[in-house]
Design goal:
- By secondary structure, the protein is mainly beta.
- 11% of the residues lie in helices and 42% in strands.
- It contains two helices and ten strands.
- It is globular, with a radius of gyration of 19 Å.
């Protein structure tokens, strides 16, 4: 699905010949992955369908992202940061540890035009699967938030070893990056000029 996210601005999920969901990849893919994970585990899915609303169905609880915030260099949560600022992402969660055999945490940063600017997860970074407590906090320190000026959002996921999404929060944090330098693109590359 990551290749589709990189080249397509729209995803149509077709289930048994009918459109189940139609939207941007970052809206449709988490729902699809959750549905397939539940189906593999024979758990009743609670996916929102455009034809039939299944919101009233009970969904088995594993883990949930309660809140996420980005803390700036001044020690406060905000929605505006300077290019290159040191920030700390804090993710507050609750979980049922008895049902979890280790999880991974995924992050995906998007620009306001839905461009996927950066994505990672704890397994990609060679971190062992994480054991969650009944409730807790996950912290990720970002030494330099090197996006050029613009509006961004962050999606956050708690996933099983087989990539089943226990929880996926699209637009968990929305923020703006400002800069005194008028650079273009997505990321600021640290550099020095030399003239001889």
């Amino acid at each position: 699905l990551s290749q589709v996210e990189q080249i397509c601005g729209r995803t149509i999920w077709i289930d048994k010949g009918k459109i189940r969901m139609d939207g941007s990849p970052n809206e449709v893919h988490p729902q699809y992955l959750e549905y397939m994970g539940l189906k593999r585990r024979n758990i009743k899915p609670a996916v929102k369908s455009q034809e039939v609303s299944q919101e009233n169905q009970e969904k088995e609880f594993f883990a949930e992202i309660i809140k996420a915030e980005i803390i700036g260099e001044d020690g406060t949560a905000s929605c505006k940061y300077r290019t290159g600022e040191k920030v700390t992402l804090k993710i507050y969660y609750k979980a049922d540890p008895s049902k979890l055999d280790g999880v991974l945490i995924g992050l995906a940063f998007y620009r306001s035009d839905k461009l996927n600017c950066y994505g990672t997860n704890t397994v990609r970074e060679r971190i062992d699967y994480i054991k969650l407590n009944a409730q807790g906090q996950i912290t990720c320190e970002i030494d330099k938030l090197n996006f050029v000026k613009g509006s961004y959002w962050l999606d956050i996921a708690i996933r099983s070893k087989d990539m089943f999404a226990y929880d996926y929060k699209a637009k968990a944090v929305e923020f703006t990056v400002y800069s005194t330098v008028d650079e273009v693109g997505v990321a600021k590359l640290d550099h020095k000029w030399t003239f001889e």
